[in-house]
Design goal:
heterodimer, A: 300 residues, mainly alpha, 10 helices, 68% helix, flat, B: 250 residues, elongated
Amino acid sequence: MDPAMGMGLVALMGAAATVAGCSEDLESDIGSQSNPNSQVQLAAQVGYPHRIFNKAISGEPPSNAMYCAVGAGVAMVLMSESVMSASPLIAIAIGAFVAALLNGVFSTTSYLGRNASQTRFNQYVYLDVLRNQILSLMGHAYITTFCIVLISYVMWNQNLIGHPFPFPVIALIWGLCVGAIGSSTGDVHYGAEREFQDFKFGSGLNAADSGNITRFAEAGVRSSMDNAWFCSKFGGPVTGIAFGMVVFLDNWRSTAFSGWTAVVVGVVIVLVLVIYNRKVETYARKKYGPFPEYAGDIEA
Amino acid sequence: MTPEISIIGMLMGNLPSIIGIIIGGLCIAVGVHFVPVGGAPAAMAQATGIGTGTVQLAAGSGLTGLLAAGYMYMTLSAAGTPGISEIVLICATGAVGAMIMITVTMLVGNWVYIYGVGVPPASAKRDYDPITGDPQTPYVAAGTVGQGIPTVCFVSGAIGGLLGGLGGSLIYCMLMWVNGDPAISSIFAIGVFLVNAVLPSYNIQGTIEGFHDPKFKRLPKAILACFIASLLCGIIAVIIPSGAMLSGGA
């Protein structure tokens, strides 16, 4: 392949991955999926009923892997000559739509099931919460699936990159990857900051305060839409940057270099990241200092 | 030829592949112990490590490496079936791909802890960071067991990614030796990877900070369990495609 074409494809994949990462994180923030869900689930049980959407379908990586594999599977079938030889863009759009419908089914059953089982804690099923937020969940899932299936198509197509793995398997792996990244990065912003905004910034979350989530918003009762608004300012974009960096850096080194040079370039990237992380860590320790409550012997 | 003899013959003929699958499985099992995962508490900044599950992160990084390794295998196999030296390069490619994924994730995770949550990274398992020597306990928030990803955890995570990517890629190469089909090999490699990522997570019980964590000493049990599991996976991986060929199905 022409090197300029290769770099263009890598850039396109990186851009699509950035959008996918951002929308994946916001989807999990609206639905309170993954680890922060433990607090939403616990809140009613410790006396704080709320109007936050509650769907822990599974961990984010398996659920996103499923949506992306379904999207790619549908797109592959539609594109095959024996079915309808659909254009790739239409096929990917329809595949992502089917995946979004699946997301809707899982989200609905998950919300109804979880909240219905918590009636004894005065946690009710709010039909307006379900009605208002299900479409934004499905919309974000659509964007994520569309972008990831697009990346996978570019990798799989024999005229472009020509990866040997089947189309749905590539989508499954990238879906797993985006879920793992979203769960590790952007969800922390939701779980550790937005869910506990009543507590002082930077004070950490004492385990004794588990379940005491913030239930009132800037105006009125807090909903999951307010959470998405807040997380879209930091948690969502950094998740996008993380996934975009993974897709871009990994593909860039194997497109621009080959053989052992690509391996060495990868190792150099990792070393630079380790050094940069050390810089960020040192900055945080200097900026924030030790916790004032600390009463031990070790000097900061 | 009786079926029993033919199965034994198949297994003996593919012994190097079975050994390779076992080595790959053990690499994954050891790698999972290196990855600093804090599970749900870390997502609430209540524990040191990455705020997600063990298996999910190990699989996310290892399988990203598998994508890079699969492409490299295809490129190198254009000149014939890859030998040992080519397989070393393929495994190195997969290992580096996994390392890039996990280091980027840890770095951005630290951005969120530092800029989004306002807490400095600190380990609660050691008073001083074994690599940098920085004091840790004064920076641990009250009522928590640390937060963020300090340098020792970051380096440990990078080693975990390396081993996970290496193991996944090695298993893929061995499966390609057996059946030569990227579709079957990739799906089976994902399966073997998950088996070897799930078993050690019983050792970890939700959270581990890396090689400096006391739970790391439980590693031998995971190695034994994963050896047996990988051996079974290796035998099945050889029998299924070869059995299909024997019965005329392929």
